[in-house]
Design brief:
Strand 2 and strand 3 form a beta hairpin. By secondary structure, the protein is mostly helical. The chain is 61% helix and 5% strand. The chain has a single domain, classed as Orthogonal Bundle (Multidrug-efflux Transporter Regulator, Chain: A, Domain 2), CATH 1.10.1660.10. The protein has a three-stranded antiparallel sheet with strand order 1-3-2. The N and C termini lie far apart (54 Å). The protein is built from six helices and three strands, in the order H-H-E-H-H-E-E-H-H.
């Protein structure tokens, strides 16, 4: 029941206009569904998907692994990216790593990956400048 997960009744059907383009509403929905950072999952659904308790997710928030967005009613909402981070922490905790240490490991891994991406982009730019 994905529509329940997104907090909507049902997505509007994509309609075609005379030019054959999809409706802008359908494009927006596709953008949200494909956005790794879109907060699509409630705490209950996120906990169910990860097979953890809501308290585990609150602990990740307290450990500053990530800060979930809040709905208009103040409820935590999680993105797919955040669920992947939570799953990685859960795997480490299941292997005996303390929660705080697991969160720190994941944070450092993500920082390293980001630094490597920046390094790769800068190296490409440098290589292009040297060729010209």
């Amino acid at each position: 029941m994905e529509s329940e997960t997104l907090g909507a009744t049902s997505p509007p059907a994509a309609t075609k206009n005379p030019s054959g383009d999809q409706d802008a509403g359908a494009d927006l929905l596709d953008d949200k569904l494909n956005d790794e950072d879109y907060p699509a999952y409630s705490m209950g659904r996120a906990a169910e998907l990860l097979n953890v308790s809501p308290a585990f997710l609150r602990a990740l928030d307290a450990a500053k692994l990530f800060v979930p967005q809040r709905s208009a009613g103040g409820h935590r909402r999680y993105s797919r990216y955040q669920l992947r981070l939570a799953q990685r922490v859960r795997d480490l905790v299941d292997q005996g790593t303390a929660l705080d240490a697991a969160c720190r490991i994941i944070i450092l891994e993500d920082q390293l990956a980001e630094a490597q991406q920046i390094n790769t982009r800068l190296q490409r730019r440098l290589d292009q400048n040297e060729r010209t």
